[in-house]
Amino acid sequence: MKTLTDKTALITGASKGLGKAMAVALAEAGASVALVSRDQPKLDEVAAQIRAGGGRAEVFAADVADEAQVARVRDQFAAKFGGKLHILVNNAGINIRKSVTDFTLAEWNSVMNTNMTSAFLMCRAFVPMMRGQGYGRIINMTSIMAHVALPGRTAYSASKTALLGFTRALALELAAERITVNGISPGVFGTEMNIPLMQNPELSAQFLAKIPMNRWGKPEEIGKLAVYLCSEDASFITGTDVLIDGGWTAQ
After folding, report:
1. In what order do the strands lie in the sheet with 87-90?
2. Which residues of the chain have pLDDT under 70?
3. Cβ–Cβ contacts within 10 Å for residue 12, how many?
4. CA distance 202 to 28
5. What was the pLDDT predicted at 45?
6. Which residues partner with 242 through β-bridges?
7. Which phi and psi angles does 86 have, rounded to 5°?
8. What is the three-class DSSP state of 151?
9. Number of H helices and number of E strands within the chain?
10. Could you tell me if 241 and 160 are in contact, meaning their C-beta atoms sit under 8 angstroms apart?
11. What is the pLDDT of residues 61-84, one digit of tens each?
């Protein structure tokens, strides 16, 4: 159903994986979508897929951890979409897996800036466009690593835990504007990045052993959840984090 007709949505990290899945799902629900990532060719592919289905998609190549580039995207978006935004999905993220004693400061900052600071920069730039409409949705892609942890994930877990705290505080700031702010914490999903793991019987078995439902998540399941959180049916849900992990964190 076209539950998001007449809405505009901006998704960071939209060139692949869960960002792509959410962008496609939001477009299928009727939203006009702005696709943002550093990978222009991949963005063009996603935009072409959305347009082939009759949706509107605009592409903005940028590093959302860079203040100047976020400002540029804001101005370009305002010119193309008339200065109004209804849905913001902060999905851009990276992970560096190594012992804390092996991290360089540059690597640590890279994870924190991409996963956490980018969400701050995007919200600071785009929340003014969301005010005064009586409707708004912000989704921050947190992670089960904001709730549990694994060795070698110090930077990633720290960044996602910080993003969860940011989500809760921002929800309180914007509640009076009828702008909801929620996190989605995915477990392991069958994205392009995880295909090598899924195809490795030993490594796949190690992950599946932690998942009571004994399967990998499907990217389209994240897309459907994002559509629900952006719908009118979810207007009373704010300041929370939705775990979608097959039961991993219930153990």
Report:
1. 57-61, 32-37, 8-12, 87-90, 136-141, 179-186, 241-244
2. 1
3. 31
4. 37
5. 98
6. 184
7. -110, -35
8. coil
9. 9, 7
10. no
11. 999 999 999 999 999 999 999 999
